[in-house]
Amino acid sequence: MLRFVGVRLLQSLVALAILSVVVFVLARTTGDPLHMILPMSATEEDYANARAYLGLDRPYVEQYLSFVARAVTGDFGTSIRARRPVSELIRERLPNSLRLAVFAMTVSLTMAFPLGVMAAVKKGSGVDRVAQVVAVLGQSLPTFWVAIVLVEFVAGRLQWLPAAGMSGFSSYILPGFTLGWFVVAGMMRLLRSGMLEVLDSEYVKLARVKGVVEHRVVWVHALKNALIPVVTFAGIYFAILVTTAIVVETVFAWPGLGRLAYEGITSRDFPVIQAVVLTTAAIVAVVNLGVDCLYAVIDPRIRYAR
Amino acid sequence: MAAEPAGGALALPDVAAHPAAPAQGRRWPVISITIITVFVLVALLAPLLGTADPYAQSLRARFRPPVWEVGGSWTHPLGTDRLGRDMLARMVWGSRVSLAAGVVTVLLASALGAVVGLVAGYYGGRVDAVLMRVTDATLSFPVILLALILAVTAGPSFLNVVIAIAVILWARYARVIRGQVLTLMELDFIAQARLAGAGAGRIIGRHLIPNTLNTLVVLVTVQIGYVIIVEASLSFLGAGIPPPTPAWGSMIAEGRDVVTSAWWVSLFPGLAILLVVLAFNLLGDWLRDTLDPKLRQL
What is the ipTM of this complex? Predict the structure, then answer.
């Protein structure tokens, strides 16, 4: 088990290293950030000064190495636009994103579990039909459109909830729901199909024959194995959640990492882009690592394969 | 599993409650096919449909409501936008962008992913390990982040959107195809083909590809809808198809600030996306149930 974790950890680090190169190259190959910062009237000399000041005149390899050396210690340089340390910006925004993500995840899981399991148990019933509709809509509705419609009706016309920004619990509801919507649909589908398969298996039948109470058969015996596909996909869903967060945070003016990424990219703020992408990737990698370990615990077959 | 004492009467397993094949899964998904056909025809025949010029601005006819609302007229059946451009025409031309982005991206990604999956699954060992690490790293990278970087560094364009999405999306195909190939490689007929002297090219081309085709078709269908949504999200964020080209995502963005007074500007493109994606997803579900019931969701 320890070896398994060690190997996976090493793989994550290699992936992160490759990613850092990709991000660095992509952010520099095209477009000059100085065009965005300096006024139209700037002379050649101004450009040269700014370039030297920001360290953009050094060779790319040198820029990259110094970037990595500092990034390891948590120093991502200074934001070109905000003129503040990027690590400070990240530290400010990251908790907001995490809070929103945790809220969205909690909402989606509390919806997905009962719905997915009941849909499988009562296949073809009303619950199942509702579940199917939720699943299909969840994957077909564009997040940003849902966000706009919600803002207009729930926040605008009905004035029930705040439309944007972060202020107290009520401001979590709209963005959290929008963010969780896709995950609810996916998780629920996985649970339903997993449960259908497991409920049909021999060991579940045996449990029933032995006289185990039905709700115990469903929620303990069957659910345990139906969870395996859910855990497998949890990492991918987390990556999707992070992606969706950029759109959701932009629409709801949520002061999180996603919005920081959007702002950084629209103003070509290299240090910010690098830091956000790497932070996000590191978080995704850690979550994936956790998921893999959890997976190995639930399903011992994984540990010995490969 | 837990050894429960058998209390009371024996509860017999309710086999009838879980019929093996749901009857409704076999019926043709007429609605999906109809919706997709209509949208494809509209996209292909856009120049022949006789709609207004999607680029023609008219400052006098700004924010005209759809025909059934007070103040609407048949000149602009779905109303006009901020610049007085005909919504219907923009919707029609926007369908080209969405469908083309969906189809081109998915074809590109599936071709690349299938090659990686086939090679990794066939050769195994170190090749497999390296390719799968790359695949995993790619899978965990948020698509929109890459697309945003690309859009800002290389400028927003149709091609960049396609590349940004395809560069990430192939990994999903590679994962699934590799898994299938691994299972296939255990089967006797591959060993027999080897014994008969078939080389790598023949085994992959003649035996592995045909046997993974069903999975590929299912995946492609399901993913078209996903790509359409991602493209629309990018256009919405201003990192997709650049204006003034009509694209559903950017149309929604344009209507965002006026949603209270001119709801039609963002409502109709949203509905169009919903309809198309819904149709592709339902068709994909049906294909999966019919062709490849074991495939779960990806």
Answer: 0.75
